[in-house]
Amino acid sequence: MKLLYFAWLRARIGHAEEVVDLPPQVRDVAGLLDWLQARGGRYAEALQDLSIVRVAVNQDYVSNEHPVRDGDEVALFPPVTGG
Fold it and tell me: Are 20 and 1 in contact (CB under 8 A)?
């Protein structure tokens, strides 16, 4: 799975993207976010308030219940504001 981090998430995590093996217990976006937080350190800090994190899977904006699979491209970003 390819993870992409945008805006302040990129700065807090320390890199723009990474490729990870999807753990077998992770089945949806919520599980992915929980797993990332559990990695600790910068991940736990950057993802401590999930209400301000948005997710797209394969370029589609999705909810936390959306399934994730090996080979997906998952983008994490803050809410888009402005005009």
Answer: yes
